[in-house]
């Protein structure tokens, strides 16, 4: 046995790297949607934290380690990475380090800027709704991600374009003001709700 082999045999074992914990991340709570490359459907998720290595997501359905993730968040855009760890707290998605520094700065700015939201956004008790586009009579199923007095974020399989007119199940009307891959888009109401009309139990 040569010297290198003896050294390796006598070297202390390196402790296994601890699984990521939410405590290791800059905490946020930004709702969006994600899809897994091997699946066709998109699912709700919550961006719970960021660090120099990647994203920490809360998802209703857990992907598998190694899955390629395509996530979309309002005002952040599209993020792609691979699932590296799955814990009881959520899913860690590894991202290129060069991207994470700028992304972290962007999200911190969004979270602290008082001008980013005209109104508080809440998450509805009844997220399922339907929408009609541009005055047509065809109703398309949609999921409310969140909404406020002035607008809503949704997810649907129907394709929308900026400026499309949207009519909700309860006849609330709006227009599409942003759209991203994965079926997520934002609608600005043509007539904002009054505070007395608005609560987490409001249905669209």
Structure explained in plain terms:
This is PilZ domain-containing protein. Residues 116-191 form the PilZ domain. It holds the Pfam family PilZ. One of its GO terms (molecular function) is cyclic-di-GMP binding. This protein has 2 domains: 22-112, Beta Barrel (Thrombin, subunit H); 128-197, Beta Barrel (Thrombin, subunit H). The strands form 2 sheets. It has a 6-stranded antiparallel beta barrel with strand order 1-2-3-6-5-4. By secondary structure, it is mainly beta. The protein contains 2 helices and 12 strands. The protein is globular, with a radius of gyration of 21 Å.
> Main beta sheet: strand number and arrangement?
6 strands, antiparallel, barrel
Structural class: mainly beta
| Range of strand content | 35-45%
Rounded to the nearest angstrom, the distance between the terminal CA atoms is: 74 Å
CATH level-four homologous superfamily name of the largest domain:
predicted glycosyltransferase like domains
Round the mean pLDDT to the nearest integer and report it.
Answer: 77
Low-confidence stretches: 1-16
Number of helices: 2
Q: Residue share in helices?
A: 10-25%
Number of domains: 2
CATH class group of the largest domain: Mainly Beta
Shape: globular
Rg computed from alpha carbons, rounded to a whole number of angstroms: 21 Å
Query: Which architecture of the largest domain per CATH?
Result: Beta Barrel
Describe the strand arrangement of the main beta sheet, using strand numbers. Answer: 1-2-3-6-5-4
Query: Do you know the CATH topology of the largest domain?
Result: Thrombin, subunit H
Number of strand segments: 12
